[in-house]
TrEMBL record, chain B:
Functional summary from the UniProt entry: Component of the cytochrome c oxidase, the last enzyme in the mitochondrial electron transport chain which drives oxidative phosphorylation.
Intracellular or extracellular location(s): Mitochondrion inner membrane
BP-aspect Gene Ontology terms: mitochondrial electron transport, cytochrome c to oxygen
Annotated organism of origin: Poecile atricapillus (Black-capped chickadee)
TM region positions: 104-122
Gene expressing this chain: Cox4i1
Protein name per its UniProtKB record: Cytochrome c oxidase subunit 4
Keywords in alphabetical order: Membrane, Mitochondrion, Mitochondrion inner membrane, Transmembrane, Transmembrane helix
Gene3D superfamilies in UniProt: Cytochrome c oxidase subunit IV
CDD domains per the UniProt record, alphabetical: Cyt_c_Oxidase_IV
Family: Belongs to the cytochrome c oxidase IV family.
InterPro entries per UniProt: Cyt_c_oxidase_su4 (IPR013288), Cyt_c_oxidase_su4_fam (IPR004203), Cyt_c_oxidase_su4_sf (IPR036639)
Length: 77, 171
């Protein structure tokens, strides 16, 4: 063959290389998605609930709802 | 070998006449059908198929095969390519080449989605009756007001979007 030879391709450890790539990738992807969910969804939700119940007065809330007439057994009078 | 065993067990007379007809005097051996012989296949995981691609060589190709038996450095590049093409149908590159089939498939999918859409529009216009009265503007406003009065989902939901002091939606 007078044309230039192609470089010899990788012959060994093909599965090992693929496995390393995919194990690392799977670990990173799952950890990232878990972190994103925790800090994007779970933590804000916990904060929202904490904030809401800090200044929540159930009796006042009840009186407001009663006045609006939504209770069947506790009419506004 | 198995056929000769059958002969000895069963006896020549009970072999069916069609077999004898096909034998044509070839010592009682039936011509093998194509599908029973090893086949050529272009597959990524089968690098060396059981048979060469070209089964019946022309005179020119046979001469080339003879030349192949001598030193290979005497072969030109074209002859080497010809020998390759005798043995294989497609190169790996040709075998793995993508097609434009996905465009056809996507086009077909969109076409049928559109057709379904036309059917649905026709149905809404010509077939279905009026929607329930509970979807009117007045009813929906009254419904939303009642939900807010009841404090539905006050933490993160609808009541959290309403400003109860200013009596309007939060910005």
């Amino acid at each position: 063959m007078s044309a230039a030879l192609l470089p010899k391709p990788q012959m060994r450890r093909l599965l090992a290389r693929r496995m390393k790539f995919h194990l690392l990738g799977a670990f990173l992807v799952s950890m990232t998605s878990a972190a994103l969910y925790k800090f994007g969804v779970a933590e804000p939700r916990k904060r929202a609930y904490a904030e809401f119940y800090k200044k929540y007065d159930p009796m006042k809330d009840f009186e407001t709802m009663k006045a609006a007439g939504v209770f069947e057994c506790a009419p506004p009078k | 070998m198995l056929a000769s065993r059958v002969f000895s067990l069963v006896g020549r007379r009970s072999i069916s006449t069609s077999l004898c007809l096909r034998a044509h005097g070839h010592a009682g051996v039936v011509k093998a059908e194509d599908y029973t012989l090893p086949a050529y296949v272009d597959r990524r995981d089968v690098p060396l198929p059981e048979v060469a691609f070209v089964r019946d060589l022309s005179a020119q190709q046979q001469a080339l095969k003879e030349k192949e038996k001598a030193s290979w450095s005497a072969l030109s590049v074209d002859e080497k390519v010809e020998l390759y093409r005798i043995k294989f149908n497609e190169t790996y590159a040709e075998m793995n080449k993508g097609t434009n089939e996905w465009k056809t498939i996507l086009g077909g999918v969109f076409f049928f989605l559109g057709f379904t859409g036309i059917i649905l529009i026709w149905q809404k216009h010509f077939m279905y009756g009026p929607i329930p009265h509970t979807f009117s503007e007045d009813w929906l406003s009254a419904q939303t007001k009642r939900m807010l009065d009841m404090r539905v989902n006050p933490v993160e939901g609808i009541s959290a979007q309403w400003d109860f002091d200013k009596n309007e939606w939060k910005k």
